[in-house]
Amino acid sequence: MRTPLVTRGERFEPASVQSQMESVVNAFDRYLDASPYRFGRTKHAVMGPVAKVLERAQTGHWSVEDLTGYALRVHEMNPRAKGFVSPEARMAMESGIRELVQLIQTVPVTVLANVLERLEYALYYRRRKRASEWFDGIKQEFVRFLHSRYDTVEALREAWKDKNADFDNAYPSRSSGAYRNAKGKRREDVDAFLSGRTGEDFEQEEDEL
């Protein structure tokens, strides 16, 4: 049973604003899907300007326009954004901030930090889970790709000139030390798998995961 929060003699149950919190999370999630902040290991890499928006919104002194302008500026400064904000990202960010401000006006100030903390954790969990699922999916595709080229692990090791090579620990990353030091067909296999794919994205995300 969830313990209710208490403020000035009144009981405030976070479940009463759960639907509003989910709307905020959904909007920011859409923004992140259309932004350079797709996956990552640190909070900043996962959430981009959203984490800072939540911090500033808690003060209650920022308007929707102020917060949106701040968030978009942080977005533009990301080298991978190259100064560009897609219409989808901008609209999702605006929607998330608008609903966030409305949520803040609904929640008692004494429990606001707790509610925003829950919101941040919910978004962070969703993004990290999606990153893990995406990474595992790419890895399994690469394993199937290798199986189509090599009948046995012995054949893989001979081609890669690596006695420790294994289908289950093979990763298609051009930025890994194993790739840079690759001998035999290892580099060729990684290049062939990534050809025509979002290989650059995978290399960057794989380093962070």
Q: How would you explain this protein's 3D organization?
A:
The chain has 10 helices and 2 strands, in the order ββαααααααααα. It has 209 residues and is an all-alpha fold. It has a two-stranded antiparallel sheet with strand order 1-2. Helix 1 packs antiparallel against helix 5, helix 1 crosses helix 6 and helix 4 packs across helix 5. The longest helix is centred in the middle third of the chain and has 38 residues. The protein is elongated and about 70 Å long. The two termini are 35 Å apart.
Quick summary:
This protein has 209 residues and is an all-alpha fold. It is built from ten helices and two strands.
> Which structural category fits the helices and strands?
mainly alpha
* Tally of contiguous helical segments: 10
Order of helices and strands: EEHHHHHHHHHH
Summed over residues and divided by their number, the pLDDT gives a mean of: 85
How many whole angstroms does the radius of gyration measure? 22 Å
Largest sheet: 2 strands, antiparallel
Give the strand line-up of the largest sheet: 1-2
Q: Any idea what the shape is?
A: elongated
**First-residue to last-residue Cα separation:** 35 Å
Question: Layout of SSEs?
Answer:
Blueprint: E1 5-7, E2 10-12, H1 18-33, H2 43-47, H3 49-57, H4 64-77, H5 87-106, H6 112-149, H7 153-160, H8 177-180, H9 186-194, H10 199-208
Antiparallel strand pairs: 1-2
